[in-house]
Amino acid sequence: MSVGVPSMEQAARMWGWLLTAGIALVILGFCVFSIRADTLDVLGILAGIAFIFVGFNFIFASSSVEGGWRWFFIIGGIVAIIAGIVAFANPYDTVLALSMLVGWFLLIAGILDVIRAFMNTHRQYWWLGLIMGLIEIGLGAWAVNDVTNSVVLLVTIIGVYCIVKGIAEIFLAFQLRAVKHELEARTA
Question: Residues 98-142: pLDDT tens digits?
Fold first, then answer.
């Protein structure tokens, strides 16, 4: 066992935190969907909460990662927590900046996906990358064209991300809970 890598028993004790975080993220995702685009401050604060939850999840997850990758999780967690604090300090500008970044990211990722698809026409299902790239280009171009479009896209992405991440955390929590019960049964 590597130094700093927890036993399965230590990891299984985290199941309650993961369950709580998962439920909170799902609720947060639904709250994000209920926000009007003109209430950007509230969205910025909710994005800050999401960043902080994800940051703590990364830090907790670092205890179950071996080797040098552990530091990526810790650094990622710290960066996410700092992003959350910044979002609390200036929520309106945070939303606008994130919105435009998401739009530009989708535009650039779409161009790269289209290029990759055409470079791999000899592979089966190459056209899926082409379709995905075209969708990304369309969404990205739509989002960078107008800040309002960018905010709508960001709200959708944050909401979906929180719900999907929350559900994944809930499933992981119950898996760890089962491991905990199995380990307790072995020692009894």
Answer: 888 888 888 898 899 899 889 989 888 889 889 988 988 988 888
The whole-angstrom distance between residue 76's C-alpha and the CA centroid of its chain comes to: 11
Rg of the chain taking only CA atoms, in angstroms = 20
Contact (Cβ atoms closer than 8 angstroms) between residue 105 and residue 154: no
Residue type, 65: V
- For 112-151, the DSSP string reads HHHHHHHHTTTSTTHHHHHHHHHHHHHHHHHHHH-HHHHH
Tokens 């209430």 found at = 39
- Report in angstroms the alpha-carbon separations of 156 from 15, 46, 93, 147, 159: 28, 13, 18, 14, 5
Please check whether residue 85 is in contact with residue 93, taking contact to mean a CB–CB distance below 8 angstroms.
no
Residue 185: Cβ within 10 Å count: 8
Model pTM score: 0.59
183-to-77, 113, 188 alpha-carbon distances in Å:
29, 45, 9
Say how far apart CA 55 and CA 49 lie, in whole Å.
Answer: 10
Domain ranges of the chain: 8-187
DSSP state of 5: P
